[in-house]
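>> received
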Amino acid sequence: MQQRMLERFKKKLIKEREKLLADVNHIRNEELGKSQRDATGELSGYADHMADGGTDTIERQVSLGLMSNEEVMLLKIDGALKRIEDKTYGVCELCKEKISQERLNAVLYATYCIKCRSQEESKNNKKV
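>> returned
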């Protein structure tokens, strides 16, 4: 892949990484960093109604799930940035062929070409 294209993908990856980091920090500080008392708005730290407590618990679980998903995405982006440095970005890990620019535009951290990704998905679907 040409150096100019690598730089363009690198900039996109860094921008996406910064956005995800901001999201993770927001969730960590605003959603999960609150005490039970602050989260419920109750003086005692416990909601007056059981349903309110359940809602608070579900909201925290959703926030944890979102943060976990975004942390996985950060790992994938970090892997893509490392592949750019190693000069292996845009090369399928299975068949060693070039990954199309269209695929990389759609999935910046792609490690497989479309053909190999489809084969992997069909293998995984047969296992289920």
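>> The chain has two domains: 1-89, 90-128.
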